[in-house]
Amino acid sequence: MDADHEGHARSGGAHGRHRTMRERWSAFTASPFLPAIVLTFILAAAAGLFAGSYTYNMANPTPHRIPAAVVGPTGTAHATAFVNGMEKALNGALELHRYPSDTAARRGVEEQEVFAILTFRTDRADFAVAGAAGASVAQLLTETALPVAKAVGLPLRISDVKPLQKGDPRGLALFYVSLAAVIIGFVGAIQLSVHARELNPWERIAFTVAYSLLGAFAIASVVDWWLGALDLPFVESWLILAFTMFTSGMVFSMFNTLMGRWAMLPTWGLMVLLGNPSSGGAVSWPLLPSVLGLIGRWLPPGASINANHTAVYFGNAQHVFPFAVLAGWAFVSITVFWFWRHRHPGGRERTPAHAGANPAPP
Fold first, then answer.
1. CA separation (Å) from 15 to 8, 21, 176?
2. Mean pLDDT throughout 204-229?
3. Residue 352, pLDDT above cutoff 50
4. What's the pLDDT at 61?
5. What confidence tens digit (pLDDT) does each residue in 120-157 have?
6. SS3 content of the chain, % helix, strand, coil (to 5)
7. Which helix (H) or strand (E) holds 82?
8. Measuring CA to CA, how many Å separate 341 from each of 107, 194, 197, 254, 357?
């Protein structure tokens, strides 16, 4: 009985002593509470940054550089007064490029080199905006040109030589279409990591291709065939959206390889906080802050919108650049993921080939 009492005393003493601060901290860091607390603060910061990034870029768009074509004599008093008035009203953002004819200027619009055509004639001026090149820019130019022309006494006729489609009067449909492809692209990669973590690296890449093709087909089908919001060049737009989803998914896989469970932070920051507001989809790049307008073209969301926008409205003047941007991000992401694949969470355990072939004797 004495031995039992002594054992209980020792046991009670071991459990009853106060843990040191170091022991408590070690227990806390090993618990799920530390990442939960960190994640709480991260989500709060992300919410503020998300609202701030979109508000900063879209709430008060300011023109920085608006290229426009000019045709005809510009040395007359009315022409000089109108140009000076436009430059003053736009704070010097209007950048005029002389073209020899209306046909050459229209070609400049098709190549997306200029956003409008200003043609001076003997008795008036024609101001042709291109709504499809940028609805916000066309609206700004129209609202600015009318009072300036009235002030200098210049008869002005305004037209839209490249209007938006009827189902997309504000030019936002392509922005939301690309946004869906970007977000579902990396959310799909997240879900593969959670629900199919046993996939080996090449299998993960293959399934990223699969859900990108199917998801992009669903997006294009709903927007074009079901809702009729846009008349898409279906195959081209489908493949652009699939390329976008695949690139977005591989970007997350790359960060997941490098950063593990915190991979969502750089992915969200790059693709949503920075990439989407600076993509030029909701606000045309001449009205974005100049640095963001430049950076946005080099990120997957901006490249996706650029490629799809050209495919829908300027199909005969498609550029290589946005595809090169998507390909570059996809290549870098795949390369990092593949060469550091041993660090990527998941995968199946490999059983040595000789283990089953030569069983040990009993």
1. 11, 16, 59
2. 95
3. no
4. 67
5. 988 899 999 999 988 889 999 999 999 999 999 999 99
6. 65, 5, 25
7. helix 77-89
8. 48, 16, 13, 9, 28
pLDDT tens profile 46-97: 677 767 766 666 666 677 789 999 998 888 888 899 999 999 999 888 999 9
Nearest to 311 by CA among 238, 237, 239: 237
| Separation of alpha carbons 203 and 2, rounded Å | 65
Cα distance between residue 2 and residue 8, in whole Å? 10
112: left (phi over 0), alpha (psi -120 to 50) or beta: left
Q: What is the pTM of this model?
A: 0.82
Nearest to 67 by CA among 14, 124, 8, 111: 111
Structure tokens at 131: 């709504």
Q: What's at 117, amino acid-wise?
A: I
**In whole angstroms, what is the distance from residue 107 CA to residue 306 CA?**
18
Chain CA centroid to CA 143, Å: 29
Cβ atoms 232, 178 nearer than 8 A: no
Question: In which element (H, E) is residue 146 found?
Answer: helix 135-152
Q: Is the separation of the CB atoms in 240 and 300 below 8 Å?
A: no
> CA-based angle 342:345:349, to the nearest 5?
65
**How far apart (Å, rounded) are the C-alpha atoms in residues 159 and 131?**
10
Q: How many residues does this entry show for the chain? A: 362
Per-residue tokens: 84: 């000076």
Other CB atoms within 10 Å distance of the CB of residue 73: 10
Contacts of 172 (CB under 8 A, 6+ apart): 281, 282
What is the phi/psi pair of residue 126, to 5°? Answer: -105, 130
Give the max Cα distance, the chain.
119
- What is the per-residue pLDDT for 54? 62
